[in-house]
Design brief:
By secondary structure, the protein is α/β, with parallel strands linked by helices. The chain has a single domain, classed as 2-Layer Sandwich (Endonuclease, Chain A). It has six helices and seven strands, in the order βαβαβααβαβββα. β5 and β6 form a beta hairpin. The longest helix has 16 residues. It is globular.
């Protein structure tokens, strides 16, 4: 349903695609990631909560303390965020939206991906989403 890669697309193009899909969420957005540094993605998640979408984010403990991390902005906005030692080792990132859309990537969610070789794919598959939801729940349930 969508693809972005770097180099090739501007990082803002890929960020815009992620924001688009968060904006289409009706019931749930579950996120697991090593780090989240994009203010645009953070704002989209905050707006989803304002639309009564259940947003849960599991992110790495190490990156949560970085000066570029959006962890503080997410928690100050009241989002349900948990920190995970498992996520500290992850290089894979995913959004599971409404139980059927998966945004899968090794793309880092920031504005500086001009030179890295990274990919971002969008799938519409309840089977794929269920597998990622299981992984998300495993990380979520062992996070604090």
């Amino acid at each position: 349903m969508g693809v972005c890669y770097s180099p090739g697309y501007l990082p803002s193009d890929c960020i815009s695609l992620i924001v688009y899909w968060i904006g289409r969420a009706n019931s749930t957005v579950h996120v697991f990631t090593y780090s989240l540094t994009s203010p645009n993605i953070t704002q989209a998640l905050i707006q989803a909560v304002a639309r009564h979408v259940d947003v849960e984010v599991a992110m790495g403990t190490i990156q949560a303390g970085s000066k570029y991390s959006q962890y503080g902005n997410l928690t100050r906005a009241g989002l349900n965020v948990r920190l995970s030692n498992i996520a500290d080792r992850m290089r894979e990132k995913a959004f599971i939206i409404d139980g059927h859309i998966v945004l899968w990537e090794n793309f880092n969610w920031d504005e500086i991906n001009y030179f890295n070789d990274e990919k971002f794919l969008v799938f519409n598959s309840t089977v794929f989403a269920a597998a990622y939801e299981q992984q998300f729940q495993s990380i979520w349930n062992t996070s604090t």
